[in-house]
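Bug #77: duplicate submission created two jobs. Keeping one. Sequence:
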Amino acid sequence: MNQPLLFALTTALAVLTFFIGIWRLLPRRSEVDSRLQHYAEPEWVTAAAAQPRARRQWTLIGRLVTGFGLAPALAKGLAQADLPLTVAEFAAMVLAAGGVGLFLGWLRDNLIIGLLAALVFGAIPFLYLKITQLRRQRAFANQLPDVLTLLVGALRAGYGLNQAIAVLVEQLPAPSSTEFDRIQRAVNLGVPLLRALGNRAKLLENDDLDLVITAINVQYEVGGNLAQVLDTIAETIRERIRILREVRVLTAQQRLTGYILTAVPLGLAVALSILKPGFFDPFFEPGLAQYLPYIAIFLLSIGFLLIRRIVDIKV
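Kept job's structure:
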């Protein structure tokens, strides 16, 4: 082994030992405190909400994600999607997907294609996370009228609010049962009921649930018939969901048009690359032609976002 290589390995080992020593000296929070803080502080939603058992295989990646300030947003997204992954595990999946894309592009002996493929493959986990998150939020919003109907029935039968939430956990399907079960567990750990409801509302980002919690807060402060108020809110929410579904039906053709107009050029480019290798090589040679693919992707993205913005009608 030559002298420069030996010196480089020794230096790398010394630097690694130095950082490991610093990491060992840093104060660590206990796992119990971290889990309790999840119920008390909704701004920092740890991935332990979806996976109670702590896992340390990806500690280094988790610390890197935390250092870049991405951990809170990723943890909140994972909790909203109810995926059994920690932030570090999700980051490892993104890196692995990007590495696969980079390797596939490198097989074509083109670094630019490899970087583009790495970006595309790395975006797939984020796309799956977003789709799962939106699907779960939509399912909860559709179940909310039934939640209120069952809650009103339990209150009129003489149950207290805590007991009525226990009925919701037993009778409702997921995701409503999961969310109210977490509210019940937070109350059992000593968190006030109104605060536990507010924490879950911040996580779910549902305006209808905020309205329900506001009604409960008012009832707690000034009194009144909570069952009657919730019954009126349930009818309002049910009517709003009906109008929203009608709007989605009327705009379905426009949304499908946006998907087709975006997918056809990309699918055609992939098909031509497979059927006739080297067809797009002139676009990656020095000159003005190399900027055309980036311009095309930019214009496709702008067109897709404009169509989505036009058909996104708030109700």
